Amino acid sequence: MAVRDPRSAAQRADGATLVCLYAAVALLVPARLVLSGIPMSITPATVCGLGLGLLWFCGHLVTTLNTAKGRNAARTALFLFIVSQLATYGYATMHYLPADELDSADRTIVLMMGASMAGLAACDGIRGLARLELVLKAILGLITVVAAIGILQFLAGIDLTQYLNLPGLQAVTPDDFVLERADLRRPAGTTGHPIEFGVVCAVGMPLAAHYAFTAQARHTSAWRWWVCLALTSCGAMMSLSRSAMLGLALAAIVLLIGWPRKRRIQALVVGTAFVVLMRFLVPGLMGTLYGLFAEIGNDSSITARTDDYAVAAVQIAEHPLLGRGLGTYLPSKYGPLDNQYLGTLVQNGFVGLFALLGVFVVGAYAALRARGTSRNPHVRDLALTLVASLSVLALGAATFDLLAFPMATTLAFLLCGAAGALLRAVRQEHVAAGVDPPTVRVALSRLMPGRGGPE
Predict the structure, then answer these.
(1) Which parts of the sequence belong to the O-antigen ligase-related domain (predicted)?
(2) pTM of the entire predicted model
(3) Smaller CB count within 10 Å for the chain: N or C?
(4) Which candidate, 152, 177, 239, places its Cα nearest to that of 202?
(5) In DSSP terms, which residues pair with 35 in a beta bridge?
């Protein structure tokens, strides 16, 4: 493989640059817009993801494009997910399918390939910690923009996404960007639904907290990261979504477990002040959020979710291994399944379910492995941050059909790929320094705060 000067590599377009451009298309182009003039509803992000997948494949055919080679747990998990999707698609299309189900299966396989192959490109195309930082900061900045658009929708009823109707695209859903709950607007930002909007904002919270709390140690300005933290947290709360609130809570628990004691106290003070401030600035918001959980037993949306289990059980019993077929369970035809794990079990069987779980579990493992093997406090904190963001999506998959929403899906695969890129970067640092990586036992002991160097 050609040896490149790190300084020159950081100044030219590379895999990280392409991943940033893909993330921009995926998060900023409104989810309701698809390419016009083709018979299938395909988003621009899907086309970009497929393009990244093609470049990833070509990069592995040669040794001159700086594409990472060698084993990587995150890459394996993403590849197995792709294989599971192709297997269940092939199984379904071997037999007769109604026209509507066949069309949905064709569209779904294309969407899944675009998102998952972008994750592969992130895993092997982001080389080094500096380029990974660029990608994560870009993702955080884009999520902040999405949050700002949603906050404006919530507070003023102004929809900036109407100005993002780009040439060559057409809307497949109405332009009604806001739903209502308890007389409050529920914004969607550029996403397809307020639930997705809230989860996307919750994913950005750990990233913003990481850069805000580490800015002083890195001798950089912190105010912009605090702005990102405020906007993403506000966006998650204003979505009025249980999935978003549960995601924020889980991410906070993960961070508090791994952070040093001093930062835990700081975070609790900041969090308490933020909640109090929101209570006074947005009347009725905190009461509505409290009511989402206090009245959960009487909520019709919860009852509708549990009513789906009987129908799903019949489908699972008929096709346990590979499912009934990717994209063939149409909500309009068979009823909604507001649980991605259940939906995957129905459509992709146990093979697909384990593959989906592998994306979240192995992505978190790669990040924790990087945290355990590194003595760099910033790297260790960044790894914990990736675990927290992935945990938001893993929990969200249990509370809504995550893979039906393109932006949440994009973040799931990109963050898994980023975790793989981080693990590889840490290993390369050990190799460059001539240091043998710690054993698994030593690495696990360093996962706890206060072990393996200062935080």
Answers:
(1) 228-357
(2) 0.89
(3) N
(4) 239
(5) 169
